[in-house]
Amino acid sequence: MTSNNNQPVKAGASGALNKMKYEIANELGISNYQQMDKGQLPSRVNGYVGGNMTKRMVAYAEQALANGQMDQINQSAKLDTPQQQQ
To answer: What is the pLDDT of residue 79?
Structure first.
């Protein structure tokens, strides 16, 4: 059994990401996605959900950029930058 060590960039984002995942699964016609054993689903089904989540997040960021909300984007997605080795 594998474990998921992925962490959201922003603390507390897990709830919002899960909500988005279940909404998208419902929109795609996958009912009861929240209660399903994801390991028993074909990877294509899980990929549809994850791919649509990514598309939607990119669309949100593109809209924010188009509206000149660069500061909001920078604040919402600060990433740790690796230190260069000397």
So the answer is: 59
Residue 18 has pLDDT above 60, yes or no: yes
pLDDT in the model for residue 47: 93
Rounded to 10 degrees, the C-alpha dihedral 43/45/49/51 comes to: 60
In 3D space, the residue among 51, 43, 62, 65 whose CA is nearest the CA of residue 20 turns out to be 51
Query: Could you give the C-alpha distances from 68 to 10, 62, 63, 72, 78, in angstroms and in order?
Result: 22, 10, 9, 9, 18
- In the chain, domain spans: 41-69
Q: Write down the residue that tokens 């809209």 correspond to.
A: 63
pLDDT greater than 70 at residue 86: no
Tokens 């294509």 appear where? 44
Q: How many helices (H) and strands (E) does the chain have?
A: 3, 0
